[in-house]
Amino acid sequence: MRRHLAAFLFFCVATAIAFAEKPLAPATIVVFNQDVPESGDLARFYAQQRGIARDHLVGLSVSRTEEISRDEYDTMIRDPLRKIFNERGWWTIEKGVGLEPGRVTTSSIRFVALIKGIPLKVRQANDYPGDKPGHPPIGNRNDASVDSEIAALANLSSQISGPLPNPYFQSYKPIAEVESSALLLVCRLDAPQVATVRRMITDAVETEKIGLRGRAYVDGAHNSSGGMMVGDRWLAEARDQLRKAGVPTIFEDTPELLPNSYPVTDAAFYLGWYTDKVTGPFAQAEFQFKPGAVAVHIHSFSASTLHDENAGWAGPIVTKGAAATIGNVYEPYLQLTPHLNLFTDRLLHGFTFAESAYMSAPGLSWMSVMVGDPLYRPFAAWLQLESDKTPSDWAAYHDFATKNASLSATEFRGAAKQFAARTRNAPMLEDLGLLEVAAGNYTGATGCFDLARTIYSKRDDILRTVLHEADALGKDKKAKRGLDLIRSVLRIAPDAPASALLRKLEGELRGSLRR
Predict the structure, then answer these.
(1) pLDDT value of position 99
(2) Do the Cβ atoms of 41 and 30 come closer than 8 Å?
(3) Strands 121-122, 144-145: parallel, antiparallel or unpaired by DSSP?
(4) CA 389 to chain centre
(5) Three-state DSSP state, 15
(6) If you compute the radius of gyration of the chain from its CA atoms, what whole number of angstroms results?
(7) What strand order describes the sheet that includes 249-252?
(8) Last residue of one domain, picked from the residues 370, 392, 414
(9) Are residues 237 and 148 in the same domain?
(10) Minimum mean pLDDT among 8-22, 25-39, 48-62, 196-210: which range?
(11) What's the rounded Cα separation, in Å, for the pair 419 and 167?
(12) The pTM is what?
């Protein structure tokens, strides 16, 4: 059985590597606003970084505003793009019969990078010729992101109300392997500042050379009201996927968000929900994601603007250092947002940001916007086992997890603890401690945390591990030991940002002793 599993894993890795080696530049176009000089500059910079030919740069004369009307979208974006696709032979079109519109059967272009300066969203239109609105609250909506409309550019129908089914949803094939498809995977290189867009491009290119390394933070809402439990299910599945890949993961599973003073370090991956603006540790002035980070927060209007670093989530996330995020320009309804469990799974298996995002999106001509380099593969380098030229704790954990995927959960934790202790891998030990807590083995958890904090050198890493350890001691009915640990740390670092959390936990442990 284990031999079969190992063979299957080898096949998956080999297949993903083969996909990753296929050149994507010939299938990519870059669309910019020719009336905005910095938009053209960014387009040329991105094309140079990715080896995209100059004849794949498409300049449009479009409004400088983020929101446009349906008529403006049709005349300034849709119609010019369709004309260019026809003139340059990027499409194969089958003529319609009678009054039926024609049909685009194939496209040599699969990826589209929209550059800062291209409008973001199309507002609701009334009495659009040929449109047949359906039932509210979804079927009668025709507002959408520009990006999602361009993804469905090959849909020649005048029906604009309601979402279109995404034929790529839940796929497990690179878009180049999908035959008879004219779907365009549209992402946007956009941010409040031009310098941020340049940094997003260079971070993506540099990060994928060695693979995205760091810690994941997944913040669930523990919300079962109004069918919202599906969002928590996505996040719980993403947590499991990350840990199986050997990515140390902090999972917050209470209705509260990560508090302001929570010690977040090495943040390479973030998933969360459900507040209208950046909050908690991510709102702190000094906070920065790791270069190349992928971060997504579910909220209905998380990307209603990308030009304000203090509004929503998408703009602030990239301003804080992330290279890629996903958002919504208008109310999308939860089930029609990208499913973050699918998104995480596809990224971890080496697919591009664009492929992973569209594999996770149920609908097109809707509200989603994918912000980042469409060709970015944050985890593709991880698929090449033992190829790391610069060993790190992050890579060591991933390699161990991959090689020992066939072990049972108990066997894995036991073998992993021995490996982590021998190699003094503190992120791995901390993560194993959290796994032991989830399994109810509090004694095993405190042992992992205790060793991890003796290895860590950064204050915030140590304080976060102390919070884990003291909490585990309390669950293990050893509140006195937990109190002693917290008090010893507070004497050394009384003014650290995390001291408020330590004092709060100290009060809870004190209360448990009185009961």
Answers:
(1) 57
(2) no
(3) antiparallel
(4) 26
(5) helix
(6) 24
(7) 249-252, 215-219, 267-273, 294-298
(8) 392
(9) yes
(10) 8-22
(11) 44
(12) 0.93
